[in-house]
Write a structure and sequence with these properties.
Length: about 450
């Protein structure tokens, strides 16, 4: 197939999804059928249908009505390029059946751009070893430190704003905050935030959002890699020398220090390349997704008239506020889904009326965004209900590759939103701008 189709979004953009109207049908399937009737050349039919589907699933579109129609009428939907899985049960089957559905859909791109990062790996003993080491380095017990870091950085960014002031919610806050926080948490605070932005976005686009293999996207990612690798290698080496001078008494609080100290013991050693890939992979995986999460949560709270209630929750405690943040993001998740490679002939949703045979080599788009709106699993999904059960939320996916930073993110998103809620009320005063599907700007005013 020629390079003619839009790529479905693998990052959310906070596109409006007003008032929970996602059951409204716009007859997407009928529109696709009409193309088949209008054109006689099957290649042109496939190209046009792929372009239409890519647009409905793409960044900047409200994807929910399309998925609602698929869920009701074609829950496992075969497009000319890939198969979309939309029901909660089937999404969980794809994420958790790790030997059948793998990250082989983009693993070669990860290895080329980032190096040996665990997200590219299959379900092996070596994967388990590396993820166990990373769980010690990115520990859930860091909660208090992460809370303090985000509170400090968020406080500095918002300190001067008062009623009547305008600022850019994305460029001056949501995109800056995660870069500032994560470089300190990882232990690479020397790297300028602009560089983190550039590396992470160019690599994210090439790895996760380059279905048509646009050579320009690959070129940009490879150029970032060629700058990033020597900088990171040098930082890692000089930190190793510092730690060697410190001796055994040094208490490692950053991820890099922990990985370097664990490297001294064979069973907990990652190679230098794996350490570098972990730092780079974390930048790629967390900066824009966190930025989108903060922006989406703020926009959805405003649009759905939930700002005051979220303010009250923020005054109560972080857990209450997290309930509002998660529910707000459910309507436009930062990572709305992912591609998986079906590695063997397989029947998904077997025994149901939607069971579908997938051939080995099929590309499957696992639509978490749709699963989080599945009325069979999520009670009244179009309603905003803070405090739903944890299982209603799939922002960090499920199964083997579940996000290592899930708990980190929950703290960061909560504290980031708390800072905004404490300013008072925000009003959107200008259009959002996107670059390659990622939000860059959203002018707001404190009122
Ligand atoms: C809102 C913020 C974030 C979101 C939405 C997010 C989302 C995700 C998702 C969906 C995956 C799985 C990708 C897949 O299976 O295809 C993932 C993996 C990963 N994330 Fe995150 N993430 C976030 C923040 C973070 C943070 C803060 C860290 C680290 C401090 C992190 C580190 C990782 C790592 C290392 C993986 C790979 C895990 C593996 O392969 O086993 N992420 N993330």
């Amino acid at each position: 197939m020629e390079n003619k189709t839009a790529t479905p979004s693998v990052c959310g953009t906070g596109a409006p999804s007003d008032g929970g109207t996602n059951t409204t049908s716009t007859n997407y399937l009928a529109q696709l059928q009409a193309v088949g009737q209008q054109l006689s050349d099957p290649v042109k039919v496939a190209q046009q249908q792929a372009a239409m589907i890519g647009k409905w699933m793409g960044a900047g579109s409200d994807q929910l009505p399309f998925y609602a129609e698929l869920q009701a009428q074609a829950p496992v939907f075969q497009t000319p390029l890939f198969t979309i899985v939309t029901r909660y049960e089937d999404v969980m089957e794809a994420y958790n059946n790790n030997d059948v559905f793998t990250t082989g859909a983009f693993s070669a791109q990860i290895t080329r751009d980032i190096g040996p990062f665990i997200l590219a790996m299959k379900n092996t003993a070596e994967y388990e070893r590396q993820k166990s080491i990373l769980r010690l380095a990115v520990a859930r017990t860091d909660a208090d430190r992460i809370h303090a870091l985000v509170t400090e950085e968020s406080g500095k960014l918002l300190a001067t704003y008062k009623a009547g002031d305008s600022f850019d919610l994305v460029a001056q806050y949501s995109r800056l905050l995660p870069a500032l926080v994560v470089r300190r948490y990882l232990g690479v605070a020397e790297i300028p935030t602009e560089q983190i932005w550039q590396w992470s976005r160019s690599m994210f686009r090439d790895i996760f959002a380059n279905l048509t293999q646009d050579p320009q996207l690959t070129k940009a990612a490879v150029a970032s890699r060629d700058v990033a690798f020597p900088i990171l290698d040098q930082l890692i080496e000089s930190r190793r020398q510092y730690l060697d001078q410190q001796g055994a008494d040094h208490d490692p609080v950053t991820v890099l220090d922990r990985l370097l100290i664990m490297q001294r013991t064979t069973t907990t050693a990652l190679t230098n390349d794996e350490i570098r890939a972990t730092i780079l992979g974390t930048f790629v995986g967390m900066v824009d997704l966190t930025s989108i999460g903060i922006m989406v949560a703020a926009v959805q709270l405003m649009k759905r008239g939930m700002w005051d209630k979220a303010q009250a929750a923020a005054a109560q405690d972080d857990t209450a506020l997290l309930g509002y943040v998660l529910e707000a993001m459910r309507f436009s998740p930062p990572a709305p889904g992912a591609f998986r490679l079906c590695e063997q002939d397989y029947v998904i949703a077997k025994g149901t009326d939607r069971q579908t045979a997938l051939k080995a080599g099929t590309l499957v788009y696992v639509a978490s965004v749709a699963a989080m709106q599945d009325p069979v699993y999520v009670d009244s999904p179009t309603e905003f209900r803070a405090g739903r059960p944890e299982t209603a939320y799939l922002f960090w996916f499920s199964g083997l590759h579940t996000c290592l930073g899930q708990y980190f993110s929950q703290i960061q998103l909560t504290i980031a939103l708390k800072g905004l809620l404490q300013l008072g009320h925000l009003q959107i005063v200008g259009p959002p701008t996107l670059e390659g599907g990622f939000p860059n700007n959203l002018p707001v005013k404190v009122v």
